[in-house]
Amino acid sequence: MLKYITKRLLLIIPVLIGISLLSFLIIHLSPGDPLSLKYGLNPEISPQAKEYMNKLYGLDKPIIVQYVEWFKRILTLDFGTSFIDDRNVLEKIKERLPATLILNILSLILIFVIAIPVGVVSAVKHRTVFDKITTFFLYLGFSMPSFWFALILIYIFGFKLNLFPISGISPWYLEFLSPMEKFLTFLKHLFLPLITLSLLGLTGLAKYTKSSMLEILNQEYILMAKAKGLSAKRVIYIHALKNALLPIITIIGFAIPGLISGSFIIETVFSWPGMGRLAYEAIMSYDYPTIMGIGIISTFLTLIGILISDILYAIVDPRIRV
Amino acid sequence: MVLLKDKRIIISSLILMAVIFFAIFASFVAPYNPYKTNLDTSERMQPPSFKHIFGTDELGRDVFTRVIYGSRISLSVALLAVFLMTILGVMLGALSGYFGGKIDFIIMRFVEMFMCFPTIFLILTVLAFVGPSIFNVMIIIGLTSWPGLARLVRAEFLSVKERDFVLAAKMHGFSEKRIIFKHVLPNSMAPVWVSVTLSLGSAVLTESALSFLGLGVQIPTPSWGNILGQGRFYIDYAWWLMFFPGIFILMTVLSFNFIAEALQDHFNPRTQQ
Questions:
Q1: To bridge A302 with a disulfide, which of A50, A256, A272, A316 should be the other Cys (CB 3.0-4.6 Å)?
Q2: Domain with A163 in it
Q3: Do residues B69 and B30 make contact, with C-beta atoms less than 8 angstroms apart?
Q4: pLDDT at position B273, please?
Q5: What is the pLDDT of residue A35?
Q6: How many other C-beta atoms can be found within 10 angstroms of the C-beta atom of residue A105?
Q7: pLDDT value at position A32?
Q8: Is residue A137 domain-resident?
Q9: CATH superfamily to which B3-26+64-271 belongs
């Protein structure tokens, strides 16, 4: 077991180096060096000042040296200051992280609670009307452009029915509300983004559960259990389900980049003040310290997620450890 | 052909053929000019009517015309991006699966790298720095979407290369190039077709999301995503601006996904029971 974990940990190193190299190169090889992006619009900058800046940021050194120094800094989570407001990038991310985490964790829970039963039932009742209808809706959700779905919800619930607020996390009159009312308005603001984000992940997981379950139901040991005269319920919910859910553990880790990508679009549409929206703002204003900071942080989150799900998988399924 | 009897395939192909027809013959099908603005108040922001079946936008342009021309852009971006993805994915997956060892190790680390990164973030960052254009969007979607396919092809190669006919080919003394391309690859193509069809759908989605966010196809060139992205600002009183391009995206992606599912069932009858 220890050997397995060490092996997984060692495999993370090349990925981390690769990602940091990739993001470093994208920004340094693209037209316009960081300094001209930051000060390019200021015509009064003198050559001396420019040289001083180059020295200060280490831009006069060879690119390899720059990379190594930058890599050392990011290991301590030091991403520098933002080009937009000169604030510490890590501080900016920390400020936005809770909103994203709340949205993503709640939607992850919602996804699991709905998708797994739907997938299981639709596999057990394979080829029935129930299965056909759910399959159609799963495909519909899977093919739906998330931003379009968000706009439809905004149109119906925001403009026509006037039930839910369509953007932001809190109204301007927040300070005049009692704690209970604050919580309720928060829930109201959360509703539409949460529904949209969950729909994205739900369809994929339900389809995955269904095919995993179908595959298990065709295995010989299930036939064996049936032949032994065990009740259908016992066979399905004890023998089959346990084995079908195993591979799902591994996709939790890989679901993180998808969720981040999803919340990226959804936070932008709903003006949700999370990391996704910060990333969008940073990209639109070429704020490269912030862009790199977010990129590295989301890679860290994903790698940790994958590592945890790998370890969990190895604990529950002894076949993997060999 | 068994496949042509599948209802999902028939309906989806009809929808896709219609969209492809629109894309190719846009200048004949579309009733108006997609770029011609008409600022006359009687022509701007008109709801759907017989004259303009999808209504008109804030500049008095016919939305139906723009959606038709948009299918040209959206489909060609998806086709070329997926073409690039397929070449990269099959080549790298085949190398990795057939040769194993160091090549496999390096390629798989690349695959992991891409899979650990939120793709849309990577694509948007690159687009912001190289500048958004139709060509850049195609290339970047292609360059970032191959890892999934490479993993599939690799897994398929790992199992096919152990089969007896490959051993027989080796004993005949055939070159490795011949074994890879003439023996192993043709027998590993089933999951590739499924994955390519699915990717066409997801490329349409990615392109429209990028154009929606303003970093894909740039206005005034119409693409489904940017018509929708512009329409979003007028959502409270002109629903038709965002509704119709969304329907086109949904129908196209849905058709690709249904065909992929039908192909999957066809190649792998086990999941069908």
A1: A256
A2: 98-284
A3: yes
A4: 40
A5: 57
A6: 11
A7: 53
A8: yes
A9: MetI-like (1.10.3720.10)
Q: Do B117 and A268 touch (CB under 8 A)?
A: no
For residue A261, being part of any structural domain is answered with: yes
Specify the residue for token string 């999370």.
Answer: A274
pLDDT of residue A261: 80
CA dihedral B97, B103, B105, B107 (to 10 degrees): -80
Rounded to whole angstroms, the Cα distance separating B110 from B133 reads 26
Average pLDDT over residues A229-246: 81
Is B125 in Cβ contact with A306 (below 8 Å)? no
pLDDT of amino acid A155:
92
**Does the predicted TM-score (pTM) go above 0.90?**
no
If one counts the domains in chain A, the total is 1
Q: Do the Cβ atoms of B232 and A151 come within 8 Å?
A: yes
Could you say which of A142, A148, A264 has the minimum Cβ distance to residue B249?
Answer: A148
| pLDDT on residue A218 | 82
CA atoms within 13 A on the CB side of B79: 9
Answer whether B129 touches A (CB < 8 Å). Answer: yes
- pLDDT for B248 equals 95
| Per-residue 3-state assignment (H helix, E strand, C coil) for B187-249 | HHHHHHHHHHHHHHHHHHHHHHHHHHCCCCCCCCCCCHHHHHHHHHHHCCCCHHHHHHHHHHH
Q: Is A5 on the interface with B (CB under 8 A)?
A: no
Q: Would you list the domain boundaries of chain B?
A: 3-26+64-271
Average pLDDT over residues A14-41: 68
- CB within 8 Å of B238: residues ≥ 6 apart: B45, B47, B55, B57, B58, B231
A192 touches chain B (CB under 8 A): no
Is residue A169, in this structure, part of any structural domain at all?
yes
Instruction: Name which of B110, B235, B257 is nearest A143 (Cβ-Cβ).
Output: B257
Model confidence pLDDT, tens digit, residues A277-300: 999 988 888 787 888 888 888 888
Mean pLDDT of A112-126: 90
Q: Do B246 and A291 touch (CB under 8 A)?
A: no
Whichever domain contains A149, its CATH number is: 1.10.3720.10
Q: Specify the pLDDT at position A33.
A: 54
Q: Do A261 and B118 touch (CB under 8 A)?
A: yes
- The per-residue pLDDT for A44 is 59
Q: What are the residue ranges in chain B where pLDDT is below 70? A: 1-2, 269-273
Interface test with B, best of A7, A13, A15 (most B CBs within 10 A): A15
Q: What is the pLDDT of residue A148?
A: 93
Query: What are the residues facing A124 on neighbouring strands?
Result: none
